[in-house]
Amino acid sequence: MAAVFTIYTAFDRPDLLSALDHSDHPLNQLWPEFLDQDLTFQFFSRFLTRLKPLARFQFLAVETDPATGNESVIGLARSIPFFWPDIATIQSVDSVSLSQNPKILQSLPDGGYDTILARGVQQCLAREGQLKEPLALTLDQLQDSAICRCQDPPNAMSALSITVHPERRKTGLAEVFIRKMKETAVSEQLQALVVPLRPTRKCEYPHMDMSSYINWPVTDGCPVTNRAMRPVRTMCMQGANLPFDPWLRKHLRLGGKVIKVAKNSMTVRGTDAEWRQWTDVNFEDLAKLSPGCLEGNDYIDVIIPSGLVPVQYSRQEKIGIYKEPNVWILHELGKIE
Predict the structure, then answer these.
(1) Is residue 195 part of a domain?
(2) Are 293 and 287 spatial neighbours (Cβ–Cβ below 8 Å)?
C-alpha cells in the first residue's frame, strides 16, 4: 500500500518542528556529522523557521497513524527565496529563456549552498529592517555583501536540502518535495528555482573532479559500484544522456539543467581532534604514513566517510579544511509534472 502523507510548511505548522529538535530523530541522523560544523549553516539555518517570510519555504511531510492519529515527520525540505540582481535586469524572463542565457546563470555564486543561504537570510533581514551589516564567513560571502544588503523582493528561490526518512525513500516523497518547491516558486511569482545539489554517490570517488563526475553516464553492466578512489575506466555508453549519479539524474528527469560546479559550496574547518570526533578518522596517524609527509610536505589529503572530496590537512597547524563542491541546477518552472 502506498504511503499517505501530507505536506505542510513551517509557517502553517510550527508545532511540527519540535520533533526535529531531538538529535536522535531519524531525519537528523542522515547528514554526515561534519557537515553540521559548517559555520554558515550553524549561524544562518536557524533563521529559516524563525523568520516568518522564510518559514513558508520550509516543507514538512507528515504521516498520520490511522489507529492513533499520531503524526510523524517523515521528510523535510528546506529552501530559501532570494533576490538575484542579474535576472532583475531583464524586462521579461522565465526559466526557459533563463536557461539560454549562460552569462546570467554563471553569476550564481561559487560559494553555492553557504553563500545562497547567507544571502537569502540577510536579504530577508534587510527587508524586515533587522540587518545592520552583512556577516561574511567566507571569501565568497564577502564578495556577496553588497547583494546581501538588497531590500528588493525575492525574484528567485533556491532549494537547500531534501531529507527523507530511510523507510520512506521509495514512496516518491523526494519528487513530491521538488514539485512542491516548483509550485511554490510559481505561486510566489519567482522567476527561477535553483539547487546547489550534493551528488549522493560522489563520496565513492573523492579524488574524481566534480566536473568529470557529473558528466559520467549511467551504465549497464559496468563496474561503477566499486569504491575505487579513481574513476572506473570502462564506460558503457547506453543511456549516455543520463548522469551516473542518482540524485542528479532524478533532478534532470524532473526538468533540471546543470549550470556549473559551485567549487566551495560548503566549508568545514577543524582541528585533528575535532575531525576524529566527527569522522572517527585519526588524521595524525594517516599523516605519518602519507607519502607527502615522507617527502616533507606539510599538507596532505585525507579521505573521510561521506566526504565528496578529501580534507586538506596541515600537520604543522593540525588543522583540516574541507571545501565541498556542489552542482548548480536550474529547474524550468514551466515543467511542473
Answers:
(1) yes
(2) yes
For 263-275, the pLDDT digits (tens) are 999 999 999 999 9
Q: What is the pLDDT of residue 336?
A: 44
Tally the domains of the chain: 2
Grid cell for residue 39: 559555520
Q: Within a domain: residue 303?
A: yes
**Burial group, residue 48, by CB count within 10 angstroms (0-12, 13-18, 19+):** buried
Q: Name 63's bridge partners.
A: 72
- 314 within domain boundaries: yes
- The confidence band for 69, taking pLDDT boundaries of 50, 70 and 90, is confident
DSSP string, 259-297: EEEEEEEEEEEEEHHHHHHHH---HHHHHHH-HHHHTT-
Q: Are strands 193-197 and 156-164 parallel, antiparallel or unpaired?
A: parallel
The residue type found at 105 is L
* CA–CA separation, 118 and 158 (whole Å): 12
Residue 134 belongs to domain spanning: 6-200+245-265+327-331
Beta carbons within 8 Å of 58's beta carbon, 6+ residues apart: 9, 10, 11, 48, 49, 76, 77, 78, 79
